[in-house]
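[[Local backbone shapes]]
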Amino acid sequence: MTPTEEAVTAVRQEFAIAAIGGPTAVLDYGGLRFVTDPTLDPPGDYGAYQKLEGPAVAAPALGDIDAVLLSHDLHADNLDRAGREFALRAPVILTGPKAAARIGPPAIGLAEFAEHQLPGTRSLVRVTAVPAQHGPLDGELDEAGNVNTEVSGFVLESDGLPTVYLSGDNAGIAPVVRIAARFPRIEVAVLHCGAARVPAKNSGRALTLSAARAVDVTALLDAAQVIPVHHRGWSIYSEGFDDLDREFTDAGLRSRLIPAPVGRWAIRREIA
């Protein structure tokens, strides 16, 4: 699978991943279409931060989808107003238990390492919720003991397809150590980067992966391909693709970093 310049359309692929803007990505996997953390509003003000770019692909152009993979529901830069409306029209939203309770149907809450199966075109697609830490290890805890808020990552598996890790808004290494132990053959990682910072939270320390930490995650998972999202389109990002380019180059891992121009498939395999 090599980078492609094909624009995202409603046409399904066997396996493909594209960035849409902010944390939002489209994944075609086993003939199913997933959308992650839908942020589909136009640019606007959200108080603590601002949305600077609208989505590169409008919701109708995505066609029908099979599931939304939602890392968390309480932050507008991961689920904005139009994104919430979009998610609620999906057949299913896979997310954390507390988020599912707040959202209601069609949301299904998955505890850490719980699995949900969907019928793909050739075999079952297994979606497993995996841990994430939305800030520094000693960060502020919510009422449930989560750093910042409950956040889920996901791992996708299906026979004959690469295993894909979706980090969600994870900033920590400790969750990735646990994920690597459970899934030793992750081939593709979609990482929320950008070192997102909000001055009022955790003394302004990073709430998502810095470029240097993304390199560490890549090395720990030994992922062959890394698609960065969550590093452009919102005011909270303190780092961009240039920072990723520099850190991956310094670490000798630049060949694994896949540029993901918004609205175009970063990697793609057609349905045979």
